[in-house]
Amino acid sequence: MEIFGYSFSNDALLEEALTTPAYRMACPNARDNQRLEFLGDAVLGLLAADRLFATCPADSEGPLTVKRTHMVSSAALCEAADRLGLADRLKVNKGGGPVPKCSKTLADAVEAILGAAWLDGGLAAAREIFNALNLSPDAEGVGEGNPKGALQMMAQAMNPPRRPEYTLLGMTGKAHEPTFSVKVAVDGLGEAEAKAHSHKEAEAKAAAGLLAAIAKKTAASHNPQKNMI
Fold it and tell me: Which is the catalytic residue, given 41, 59, 120, 203?
């Protein structure tokens, strides 16, 4: 069996990687892809780090960590899965309807396929799958649907792990139409403020603002001459 340009010697490994936990609702004895996902998550992190280490020789640990977080995020994996038509090959619960493009099921399956390739053909096989995914280290498009989640992953990937701190700065406007002001801060990454008509939306906008600032700073560090113009 073949997927993403790689032909498996052991078809059972790929079958397992494509079997979602939901499929077991119809076939309880089926072996789902969660164990392979666990392995594939580690393989993905290794390959992403290896790629960035080789292609970004001027980057220190901080920028490398940010880029790796973008590369291995659920949003990036879902985009690759959608581009490569993975949803059509998954074994799912037929009663559950089509798999959404942003579903964690797709991201988990990508990692499971990497884990299966590792077991089937070692590092070379896993790298072949990784290359086909064409994951981008850039922030553009990643985390747009869930900026708080993307910022949380970025903070947790730091050494030592950190977490975003959200602070309600104030609330203005009429009682039936208030405006919330929120600040988010991550030690080592910076802070950002935003306003919105709900506390939750203000937090999301603040997280998106900080992600954009981080991406801009990272891009500027790769093109210092741009700042001199």
Answer: 41
Q: What is the mean pLDDT of residues 187-211?
A: 90
Catalytic residue among 59, 111, 120, 203: 111
Closest by CA to 145, choosing from 88, 100, 81, is 100
Give the domain range for residue 151: 147-228
| Three-state secondary structure string covering 14-70 | HHHHCECHHHHHCCCCCCCCHHHHHHHHHHHHHHHHHHHHHHCCCCCHHHHHHHHHH
Pairs from 195-202 (Cβ < 8 Å, separation ≥ 24): 199/168
Confirm whether 177 is a catalytic residue. no
Per-residue pLDDT reduced to its tens digit, 46-103: 999 999 999 989 888 877 887 888 888 888 898 899 999 999 999 988 776 778 887 8
Spatial contact of 182 and 203, defined as CB atoms under 8 Å apart: yes
Q: Greater confidence, 25 or 192?
A: 192
Identify whether 139 is part of a domain: no
Torsions phi, psi for 74 (to 5 deg):
-60, -40
Query: SS3 of 160, please?
Result: coil
Nearest to 116 by CA among 30, 21, 7, 28: 7
Is-catalytic flag, 41?
A: yes
Q: What CATH number corresponds to the domain at position 68?
A: 1.10.1520.10
Q: What is the overall mean pLDDT for the chain?
A: 86
